[in-house]
Amino acid sequence: xxxxxxxxxxxxxxxxxxxxxxxxxxxxxxxxxxxxxxxxxxxxxxxxxxxxxxxxxxxxxxxxxxxxxxxxxxxxxxxxxxxxxxxxxxxxxxxxxxxxxxxxxxxxxxxxxxxxxxxxxxxxxxxxxx
Length: 130
Fold this sequence. Notes:
Helices cover 85% and strands 0% of the residues. It is an all-alpha fold.
């Protein structure tokens, strides 16, 4: 039951931070730089990303390193840079007019949001005795 609680808390931490980012920062950038590529947001793939990425954060970062906050933050940052970097660098390589400045900002955000989410999750994991 504690693992389910940790998963839910981690999921909503990630989702909450990302929604704030998307609403207050990224939407303006999407409109400015990517409106030519935009379509209707497909919610099922978006939700699946958050569900799967939460598993990755927990298994690859939080559970192995939960007792070392510095390592959790660093490994979370590394996972975020790898995940968001894969997305943005692939888009730079394959899509016409994918803006470099947007890619760099998105990779930076992914690095930070993953590190912070992992840090929050590690705190919760310790508090609930995992």
